[in-house]
């Protein structure tokens, strides 16, 4: 059997690159996609970059057609879009684990549909693996930066937001996400004609988009609950049409699940400052 990283599909070239970045190796150096300001703030927060880590999955997205006049989730497509991202994220986490990292900051998730196949898309996760500096640590005894699954934490927060989060006494657990690919019903001919020139809500469109967003949000929240998170910060709710046409779209929710560093933690309330008056 190979190493866990190799078992997850990490190529040999990537393993050689990671070996050259391991702390303590002669001539080792780190790579990072953090800006200079982000790099300095991550260092100020007590973490040192180990190296750029990535995961990739080229995925064939199956075919599923919605009913012309019915709002409905396209389960096959929802599962494909989620699983492909999960594979990329897992491989990125495996690279970070191979470096002995405590977490990954500044994570980006990208999708690129390939010209050599209309149903093929590459899902890429990339971020900077970091290690906590024990000499700089203000955490309680026995505290681990890894989450309850034993994995390095992942976060899509900027370096500035990451620093602020730690200063407030919170730690990232992991990126949580939810996906829903939804077919939005077409209007019937006489419905469309009747709306010409009128200010009027289209209930079936409203219900479809509301339901699709709710499904994506609830799935993201369920992932955070599995990590025993207190909450999710930096949430983005994206509408991604991809290549499915105007009546089918993906709603994708993503954010960083967080927990307090100390169980008795409370955020200090700043004193109220009143303006001076004559």
From TrEMBL:
InterPro entries hit by this protein: UPF0145_dom_sf, UPF0145_YbjQ-like
Superkingdom, taxonomy of origin: Bacteria
Family assignment from sequence similarity: Belongs to the UPF0145 family.
PANTHER family given in the database record: UPF0145 PROTEIN SCO3412, UPF0145 PROTEIN YBJQ
Protein name as annotated: Heavy metal-binding domain-containing protein
